[in-house]
Amino acid sequence: MPRITRLLIANRGEIARRITRTAREMGIATVAVYADADAAAPFVRDADEAVALWGNTSAETYLDAAKLLEAARRAGADAVHPGYGFLAESAEFARAVIGAGLIWVGPRPEAIAAMGDKLSAKKLMTEARVPTLPAVEVTGGTAAEICEQGRPVGYPLLVKAAGGGGGKGMRVVGNEAALAEAVAGARREAAAAFGNDTVFLERYLQGARHVEVQVMGDRHGNVVHCFERECSIQRRHQKIIEEAPSPAVDAALGLRLGEAAVAAARAIGYDNAGTVEFLLDKRRKFHFLEMNTRLQVEHPVTEEVTGLDLVREQIRVAEGDPLSFGQEDLRLNGHAIEARVYAEDPAHDFLPATGRLVAWEPDPALPARFESGVESGSDVSVHFDPLLAKVIVHAPTRTEAALRLANVLERLRVHGVTTNRDFLVNVLRHDAFLAGDTSTDFIERHNPPRERHVGAEEVRAAALAVALGAQQAHRAEARVLKTPPSGWRNNPSVMQEVRCVHRGEEVIARYLRHRDGGFTYEIDGQVGRARIIRSGDGRIELEIDGVQRAFSVVSDGLRHWVQSAAGEVRLVETPRFPEPEREEVAGGYAAPMPGKVVVVNVEPGRRVSAGEVLIILEAMKMEHLITCTQDGTVQQVRVTAGAQVEAGQILLVVDTGESKT
Amino acid sequence: MERWQTRIDTDSEGFQANREAMAALLQEIEVQLELARAGGGERSVARHRQRGKLLVRERIELLLDPDSPFLELSPLAGYCTNYTVGGGLVTGIGVVSGVECIIAANDPTVLGGAITPVSMKKTDRALEISRLNRLPYVQFVESAGADLRRGEDSAEAEMQRQLGHFAESGRFFHDITALSAARIPTVSLVFGSSTAGGAYQPGMSDYNIFIRGRSKVFLGGPPLVKMATGEDSSDEELGGAEMHATMSGLADYLAEDELDALRITRSVIAHLNWRKLGPGPTLPADEPLYPTEELLGLLPVDLRTPIDIREVIARVVDGSRFEEFKPLYGRTLVTGWASVHGFPVGILGNNGVLFSEESQKATQFIQLCNQIDVPIIFLQNITGYMVGKVYEQGGIVKDGSKMINAVSNSTVPHLTVIIGASYGAGNYGMGGRAYDTRFVFTWPTAKIAVMGPKQLAGVMSIVRRGSAAAAGRPFDEEEDARITAAVEDRSEKESLALYATGRVADDGIIDPRDTRTVLGIALSACHNAEVKGAEGYGVFRM
Question: What domains can be seen in chain A, in order of their start residue?
């Protein structure tokens, strides 16, 4: 039997690290590939060897089959794991890998192809007697034709792309009037994303749940299911919270789902890890949506409740081994929930965010499974998926899992880039979520707050932590008089002060150290006593009015992130010496002193060259020449002869062509 | 080094009583400090704020490095005079951009920042401290000029008029430029008017920061110009910040507002390439073993009960470590080695009146400190040199002179804390203010006088009795008792720490608990200059 000794991972980020981890446990060497921006990424460092793909965009790198195969050849890899996304569901790439004499860690290319087109997949499933929602391919070009095709489906309906998923090319349409426009948009998006503008219409089931079944097959004809997952919590048609098992599925329904999924997999001779996705409607009837012929993003929740290592099974099966377990060996153990932490702004329609992660640090006191591709200092760029990490918690019950995951997320230090973290916490703690009342329109229906509620007292405590922490740092960095007490005065009058802004509101923390080492603080009119109990390594433990709290403060210049048990508070410090207000005009000529304009030599539009006298000013009984310093064109003349001007007043503006953007 | 074992019982009645008495003194001082902070009073402060200006202490706070210590000097100057406590000038030592500076700042809410005898004394002392310790000199100028009021008819004002003369004043401008000549940078930040003679304050400075629309610096204002030459002119034309920045060149930096001026000043200090010439702290700066709080209960207010000065030392020096020198010889003077905030020091502390042995021991110890370039701390609680036949015949004058000679010609920094009595020549021998002492601080319990009030009154009574007898006049016992009581009372009042501090005879009264901190700041300031002992003969064995 061929054994894999050197595995090339044709992916990046968290999933590359995930695969590397299992490969290492199995004694298999790993080869990473990377785009230019990923050269120093953790997933590259984790691998035994890494090969550059020379490029920035996905198309130039992780989607370039030829480069990937060349990398495999150079590194002497004998197998390729595609991860998810990129080329994971490209039958063509799978064939090329196999054609190059390498092992493809995934299903047969034929099985990938069979499920690749959503429309034909549906037909296949109907034949295999898997319940499906009727779908109508949109063939019409005119609005009338399209509307005609939509009539039998009924409203509301979904416009979907045949060529792909991930929410791209997908539209919910409430009535006929909006259909033609939606179809046109979906076609454009689908063409751009998948190179295939075929779209179809499908009945939109309101209040339905997204339930999917993990299947696993081998080359010996075994296919088993590993129970269901529910992934109803979605924004922009993309999952953000997934769990196993589904709160809506009991043993009997679970059995029927499992059987349907196995039937679907068998129908295409499936021989690796895959996921069969269903919609579960309000009447607990399920309908086949599509099958993902790869490892799924949310596979860890299944691993947690079954104890399986799905990547290990994938590799073993690809080597030709039979599955290491049978259907009867699988038991559900407890409940697992995964939350996807994205660099995005929930307050602005979840638009992707970018920037440098000033800090990425899970709280070691709250263990959880972190599948992340980033670390402190990582850059989140526009080129790739903004997924920062998946955080998975496994607990005896669903409620415990949800609440613990909320805690873990809340205490995660993620600073520098806007994320959906607070939003995830608000969902996990939402009564409806805890009640298991989940559906794909959960977010629209319940509209959980996009931001964390931060109370005034919490802001005060955070400002105090920043101020007292900075105070300690100042003392530690002092070049002289390092050891006398902080801010010592023999005639104290003005308190030490740190000014910050929290969500647009100013917070001024004032403090005064006492002989006993404690502090009096005054913030927003609140006066109290505080003491530093312990500090170091960015942590500071304060006793504020008799209550002890620990804070971690991460600062990047004037930006501060304060993390406590209550969550994160972000403060922006106001500089001690703000820029003075003065009119600064590019190319502007200011009066050097108060005086009277005597002569104006130029008018707007006039070309002027350096050395030319523009204006003559009389001040202190003397004439002062305002001379051109750089060639350009006069843009504005703001004064006329005889005008009295103030010092610093802009007299005229010359466009030198440099200020153009 | 040995760690002192305390013999103080903090639960004893005496300790508790001392502590209560000290608390009352501190309370009295706090009342005066509050007056000093209030400056020219509510109305004047409100008017100042209305003009969008910062108060003098707010300006200083913004100039200082955040959370760094600031030692205000002579905050109660002017106490018990007709002038506002503090004298309308704030002086002190603070850290600006990592550099210890002397800051001398006009408080324009007090008489418009006018120069008074009190503020002049504080200025002179600030300049002296700057010169002796090589500290950059930063002045905040906003002053109405000399206080021209002549209306006071107190005895003191009359004496000022009789003894003061215009030609004698103005030394101040000389001293500013002398600092510069000694390569001690001088910086003027002109917040407002600095006219007539005041114009020479920035005139004599190395760096001038003016504020647009605020600074006004000219020799003569519009009325004087009109009177002198008939010319019509405006404030801005004669001395505006813009004019000086663009035309006269008197301003080196033109700030947009007060904050901008303070920012620029910090930047100027940052570029000075300042290097301290002293070795800086070299030893561990651990806290004393005994709480500094206990310093409040050591000293009896009437100063009659003797205290062991080692108990004070143990609550001031690093780790309460004190290596005593000659402990068995001349026991009423304790000498030895220790460190304060990491700075090695030699300490001389009184445990009673000075005899010949003590004077000789002090002379030797001071020479030893000079030989190893170690600063000296004097802890004064001294009623003087011993008098009497035996002692005069034993040469107390010669021995006392040796000690005063050693103190006078010693070149290592001297720092003095007067904790109790400071009478007569004892004040001189123990590093008094007149002996180029770098810093002199007093505890609220201090009493400074030529001799004890009772002794003074008694001596004068004896003299009166003697002269009456010589003239053959009858001696009025009743009248004598009245005079004696009055003399003792006035002498007692004038010997109090507050009285001395009001006349800038020290650098300020300190809370005993701050002794260690104040000495640490002062020592660090001293280390800006070279710390070097006197050379010449070897150490004389006494």
Answer: 6-105 (3.40.50.20), 127-139+205-446 (3.30.470.20), 143-149+153-203 (3.30.1490.20), 456-573 (3.30.700.30), 588-655 (2.40.50.100)
